[in-house]
């Protein structure tokens, strides 16, 4: 029993000393396999690594990342916020609500939360501050709504979960639609109520409302990207194309929009986009492969079975065990990045979830909802630092304080979908 403890201590120690997460996972997993199977570990580890990445569905991951980065290099994010602000300027807290709407749509375009925070936040925060909005609403609305990209398809975390669990990525995409819309509406409702109770935090725009012609013209700067996303997701949902095939079409379409429609993809920009996409994709795939080595060791020493037996022995109702799992994932998400959390915890928790009688598809949805909280909570909350990078007028401490009430809203929505699984499963079952 001492071996698993040594492996976990090594993992935590390497992460604590600043080792790359993929190296910490791979080295600690290899150590565990060596203690359990001797020199055969040097055969098991490469087999685990290759087996994890040898998946046709995983081709969608770098292609969707490339699609998001290509569209992120265009003015789509700026145009989204401009259009949303013109249509919602009459509403109390309209600019902040526009931010949520723009982030949700940009999430469907990019699939990466940090990209949404950077693209929308760099425009939305200065405009909100200039119009008298409080720093709390400005920072909180951007950081929290940027996380919607993780849930609204095409979602990179769903692709990773599908590769690890064997659940259909297409069904996961469909399952993320209702929770994604519900969470976006919940954030908008919170902003509206907060702005109504404290009008000084979000002054109402007293200027002349933009004429209909100008508002319609604003939609002209975003319809190309929205049409592309509609075609890509429509091809997946209708069964015409697999997620990987649709992702290839999406990347080609994004290249056309950026290079021909907006004409912003010169050679330097294109090189930077491809380099960034390769770097992000390579990092995620490295983590996935090394996490599989670590996960296979945990399976070898029967950690999932032991965890399942221990929680079942508490005689708590199924919903009580689920709440414990969600709280544990929230805490882990504050310390570990989203990719590692999915790949390491899914093999441990999924057998327990199935034993409790829940659908693996549903668990993937609530797991990603949990990760949305993780990306806006310190110390590993990437959205916090992404917002600080594009909005230097905000301090990190300010951003952290600003997101706390928004995190509470996210957690309430998470618990609703945890306790009522049918809410997230009815659309996949219908289609």
User: Given the helix and strand composition, which structural class is it?
Assistant: mainly alpha
What portion of the residues fall into strands of 2 or more residues? under 5%
Count of discrete domains: 2
Average pLDDT score:
83
Main sheet specs: none
Note the run of SSEs as H and E.
HHHHHHHHHHHHHHHHHHHHHH
Radius of gyration using CA atoms only: 22 Å
Explain the overall architecture:
The protein has 431 residues and is an all-alpha fold. The protein folds into two domains: 1-54 and 284-300, no CATH class; 55-265 and 301-430, no CATH class. 77% of the residues lie in helices and 0% in strands. The chain contains 22 helices and no strands. It starts with a helix and ends with a helix.
SSE topology sketch:
Blueprint: H1 2-16, H2 21-37, H3 41-53, H4 60-72, H5 76-88, H6 94-110, H7 113-130, H8 135-146, H9 156-165, H10 169-175, H11 177-197, H12 212-219, H13 223-238, H14 243-261, H15 267-300, H16 303-312, H17 318-333, H18 338-355, H19 360-374, H20 382-390, H21 396-419, H22 422-430
Keyphrases for this structure?
single chain, 77% helix, 431 residues, globular, mainly alpha, transmembrane, transport, transmembrane transporter activity, TRAP transporter large permease protein
């Amino acid at each position: 029993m001492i071996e698993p403890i040594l492996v976990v201590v090594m993992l935590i120690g390497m992460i604590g000393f600043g080792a790359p997460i993929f190296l910490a996972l791979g080295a600690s997993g290899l150590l565990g396999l060596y203690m359990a199977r001797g020199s055969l570990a040097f055969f098991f580890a490469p087999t685990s690594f290759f087996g994890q990445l040898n998946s046709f569905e995983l081709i969608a991951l770098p292609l969707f990342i490339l699609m998001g980065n290509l569209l992120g290099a265009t003015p789509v994010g700026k145009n989204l916020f401009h259009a949303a602000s013109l249509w919602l300027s009459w509403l109390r807290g309209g600019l902040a609500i526009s931010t949520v709407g723009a982030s949700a749509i940009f999430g469907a375009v990019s699939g990466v939360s940090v990209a949404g925070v950077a693209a929308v936040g760099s425009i939305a925060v200065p405009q909100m501050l200039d119009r008298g909005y409080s720093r709390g609403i400005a920072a909180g609305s951007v950081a929290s709504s940027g996380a919607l990209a993780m849930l609204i398809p095409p979602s990179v975390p769903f692709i990773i979960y599908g590769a690890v669990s064997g659940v259909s990525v297409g069904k996961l995409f469909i399952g993320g639609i209702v929770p994604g819309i519900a969470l976006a509406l919940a954030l908008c409702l919170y902003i509206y109520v907060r702005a109504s109770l404290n009008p000084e935090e979000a002054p109402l725009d007293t200027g002349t409302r933009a004429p209909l012609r100008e508002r319609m013209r604003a939609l002209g700067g975003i319809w190309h990207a929205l049409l592309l996303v509609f075609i890509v997701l429509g091809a997946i949902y209708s069964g015409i194309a697999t997620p990987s095939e649709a992702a290839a079409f999406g990347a080609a379409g994004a290249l056309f929009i950026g290079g021909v429609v907006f004409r912003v993809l010169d050679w330097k920009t294109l090189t930077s986009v491809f380099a960034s996409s390769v770097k992000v994709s390579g990092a995620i795939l490295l983590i996935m492969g090394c996490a599989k080595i670590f996960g296979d060791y945990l399976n070898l020493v029967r950690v999932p079975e032991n965890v399942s037996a221990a929680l079942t022995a508490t005689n708590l109702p199924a919903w009580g065990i689920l709440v414990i799992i969600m709280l544990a994932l929230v805490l882990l998400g504050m310390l570990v990045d989203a990719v590692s959390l999915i790949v390491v915890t899914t093999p441990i928790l999924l057998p327990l979830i199935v034993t409790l009688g829940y659908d693996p598809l549903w668990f993937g949805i609530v797991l990603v909802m949990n990760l949305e909280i993780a990306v806006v909570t310190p110390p590993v909350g990437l959205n916090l630092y992404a917002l600080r990078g594009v909005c230097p007028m905000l301090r990190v401490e300010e951003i952290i304080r600003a997101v706390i009430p928004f995190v509470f809203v996210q957690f309430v929505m998470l618990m609703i979908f945890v306790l009522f699984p049918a809410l997230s499963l009815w659309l996949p079952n219908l289609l």
